[in-house]
Amino acid sequence: MPVVNVNWWKGAGEPERRQLVSELTETVSRLAKCPPEAVTVLISDVEKDHWGIGGKLAADL
Amino acid sequence: MPVVNVNWWKGAGEPERRQLVSELTETVSRLAKCPPEAVTVLISDVEKDHWGIGGKLAADL
Amino acid sequence: MPVVNVNWWKGAGEPERRQLVSELTETVSRLAKCPPEAVTVLISDVEKDHWGIGGKLAADL
Amino acid sequence: MPVVNVNWWKGAGEPERRQLVSELTETVSRLAKCPPEAVTVLISDVEKDHWGIGGKLAADL
Amino acid sequence: MPVVNVNWWKGAGEPERRQLVSELTETVSRLAKCPPEAVTVLISDVEKDHWGIGGKLAADL
Amino acid sequence: MPVVNVNWWKGAGEPERRQLVSELTETVSRLAKCPPEAVTVLISDVEKDHWGIGGKLAADL
After folding, report:
1. Which residues in chain A are contacts of C1 at CB distance < 8 A?
2. From CA E9, how far away is CA B4, in angstroms rounded?
3. Residue contact B31–C19, C-beta within 8 A
4. Which of E50, F26, F48, F61 has the greatest number of C-beta atoms within 10 Å?
5. Nearest residue of A to residue D8 by CA position?
6. Hey, are the CB atoms on A39 and B52 less than 8 Å from each other?
7. Closest E-chain CA to C7
8. Touching pair D, B by Cβ (3+ pairs < 8 Å)
9. What is the pLDDT of residue A49?
């Protein structure tokens, strides 16, 4: 049932995504009291020149 | 008015997206009682190594 | 696998939501070539005074 | 930097949300190699009659 | 065409939302080179006990 | 604190994104009464053949 969207800067590789899915699913399924199979995790790699912080593009920081 | 976001695995082609937009718009505009022109559909193709199910990357299943 | 988010104005009742989920799931599972059980639909009812169109709150239109 | 959206069924209380934020932030900041202060977590409690699975409202299952 | 989602803490009133929609629409339509009528803005008021920063619920800060 | 997602058609360049982040952040931080540093803006460039309006792909219009 739970759907988790992760938006982070482009740069992490497949091993990090694999670990992210594993750990987030364990946490969410435990706290939502649902089986891990019910948990969906969507990962979006965002370029720093498409991400703004404090009024600036992260690429410019 | 309605905004529909579809996240699905990368793989469907333009014909499927065209059909998806056509059918989703018909359904949503009918049930929302609004003109089809008011319906926006955004489609995100997600790589299987950016999608987690049951604690695993879909690419690993 | 597919995750569909529908944002529309608050007002539709449970019968419309039931119909929306049924039809959207049929369409998406057919076009994504996945079983209906894999399709998640999230529906957000949005108040008109939290929705902007053409620079105005929908509530003011 | 990372922004995590969690959509799950309404029902978890504040203690679970507190734990969710704590654990998700630790995992994401470690894997994104960014400070915990940079991680934002947004939690949406969704009613079962606004959530579709396999073509049905979760409330009907 | 552009769809803008704003998630912020619950607390702003309708006047602020009206102003937000007006200014965001003007900026986005100018930069996207599209008419203001094409711009949709969705505003989500999020409770502080559903928002995590730095591993803590904003309500606890 | 505020998180703003902008979905628009692919085509704007970095200068427009820079301007978008600058202006959106100023508006949102003023109206949310929070420092600009607290505002995150995520920009998604969407291909016209992944965007539906009025039942058609924007690429077909």
Report:
1. 40
2. 24
3. yes
4. E50
5. A2
6. yes
7. E42
8. no
9. 98
Q: Are E40 and C51 in contact (CB under 8 A)?
A: yes
Residue D23 CA, chain-centre distance (Å), reads: 11
Q: What is the pLDDT of residues B23-33, one digit of tens each?
A: 999 999 999 99
* CA gap E51, E53 in Å, rounded: 7
Q: How far apart are CA E21 and CA C22, in angstroms?
A: 33
> Which subunits have 3 or more CB–CB pairs within 8 Å of chain C?
A, B, D, E
Mean pLDDT of F26-39: 98
Alpha helix locations (H) across B1-61?
14-32
Q: How far apart are CA A18 and CA A31, in angstroms?
A: 20
* Prediction ipTM score: 0.97
Q: How distant, in Å, are the alpha carbons of A34, B25, C33, D54 from that of C26?
A: 25, 14, 10, 9
Q: Which residue of E has its CA nearest to B2?
A: E40
Does the annotation mark B36 as catalytic?
Answer: no
Q: Which residues of D touch F21 (CB under 8 A)?
A: none
The pLDDT of residue B21: 98
**Domain at C3-60, CATH homologous superfamily:** Macrophage Migration Inhibitory Factor (3.30.429.10)
pLDDT class of F1 with cuts at 50, 70, 90: confident
Q: Mean of the pLDDT values across residues C24-50?
A: 98
Closest among F27, D22, F1, D3 to E48, alpha carbons compared: F1
Question: pLDDT tens, position by position, for chain B (61 residues)?
Answer: 899 999 999 999 999 999 999 999 999 999 999 999 999 999 999 999 999 999 999 999 9
Asked if residue F40 lies in contact with residue A53, where contact means CB atoms within 8 angstroms, the answer is yes
